[in-house]
Design a protein that fits this description.
344 residues; Rossmann fold; five-stranded parallel sheet; 49% helix
Length: 344
């Protein structure tokens, strides 16, 4: 996974060929999610929006793509090693995705989760047959526990996003989106992709810029976790420190494999406020009848409410919008909606 299949991608962790290989590898193991449209949201945005709802993916998020690609790639090249299991640290969608991929591949999974992770998430991970190792809710504790489990089991650590197989797997979202939009007779002028650790954004950007370089790639980020925005605007990598946002899937910093692709290849990045994220989430629930999580709504929030984006995308007729997932804490979501209504 050196990115050497294209001369221009030698310095990057992945290339188009890696994503295409991932698509073949995971076919039949994950869903080919559909594209969807909504006339109401088109009217609000002032342009045609083509949605890629990864909330309909296995485990309810795009993370299944990268997890299956990583586990199946190891199974191809080192099946004996895989018998010792796979390891990761995650309290969210990657934990469930890796647990499912390991179960379906017949290998153990060890998931390091913070002690304060919601019980519903722990139950989901256990439901896929994984072993949970709890730790204190700090990155240092996660990494130390992962190192300990790796030494004890001999298993393979798979990073949630800063891993070439994970990045390539996530890039299959864009492979499908571009093809589906063309087949529907609505080729894209630009795509909007959320960014947290950058696995999805780096993978999709690799695909778009290789296959359709004229299509713009825009990143979407919450104001309360805008480390990638500050990194790109400041010209140097900035870590995520004490992020505070309802988009809890976008709290992490980009990695040393994901960030170079993002820095060099995306066209721009835009941020949105908390109220805008909640408004976008509620609109999708009401108008599209889709249950998405706030992290997924950040892309639509940019398309609807960000003035800088509207200026940058002036004249663009069709925008691809990636909804990253739909694993929702319903009580929290309803409380957010009520807060939004009360503020009006």
């Amino acid at each position: 996974m050196s990115g050497t299949s294209g001369q221009s991608d030698v310095k990057y962790a992945i290339s188009l060929a890696d994503v295409q290989a991932a698509a073949k590898r995971i076919k039949g193991f994950v869903h080919r999610t559909p594209i969807m449209t909504c006339q109401t949201l088109d009217a609000l945005a002032g342009r045609h929006l083509v949605f890629k709802p990864e909330n309909l993916q296995k485990i309810g998020a795009f993370k299944a793509r990268g997890a299956f690609n990583a586990v199946l790639a190891i199974k191809e090249t080192s099946p004996q090693t895989l018998t010792k299991g796979v390891i990761t640290h995650s309290s969210g969608n990657h934990a469930q995705a890796l647990a499912l991929a390991a179960r379906d591949s017949g290998c153990p999974a060890h998931i390091i989760m913070p002690s304060n992770a919601p019980d519903v998430k722990k139950a989901a991970v256990r439901g896929y047959g994984a072993t949970i190792h709890e730790c204190e809710p700090t990155l240092e504790a996660r990494e130390a526990t992962a190192d300990k489990v790796e030494k004890e089991t001999g298993g393979i650590f798979i990073h949630p996003y800063n891993n070439p197989f994970i990045m390539a797997g996530q890039g299959t979202v864009a492979l499908e989106l571009l093809e589906q939009a063309e087949d529907a007779g609505t080729p894209l002028d630009a795509v909007l992709i959320p960014v947290g650790g950058g696995g999805l954004l780096s993978g999709c950007t690799t695909v778009v810029k290789a296959l359709q370089p004229g299509v713009k790639v825009f990143a979407a980020e919450p104001r309360g976790a805008d480390d990638t925005y500050r990194s790109l605007k400041g010209g140097h990598w900035v870590p995520s420190i004490k992020p505070d946002t309802v988009a809890d899937g976008l709290l992490t910093s980009t990695g040393d494999l994901t960030f170079p692709i993002i820095k060099d290849k995306i066209d721009d990045i835009f941020v949105v406020e908390e109220e805008e994220i909640i408004r976008a989430t509620k609109l999708v629930w009401e108008r599209m009848k889709l249950v998405i999580e706030p992290s997924a709504a950040v892309t639509l929030a940019v398309a609807l409410f960000n003035a800088d984006f509207k200026q940058a995308a002036e004249g663009y007729k069709t925008i691809g919008i990636v909804f990253s997932g739909g694993n929702v804490d319903f009580e929290r979501a309803v409380a957010l909606f009520k807060t939004l209504e009360a503020s009006r």
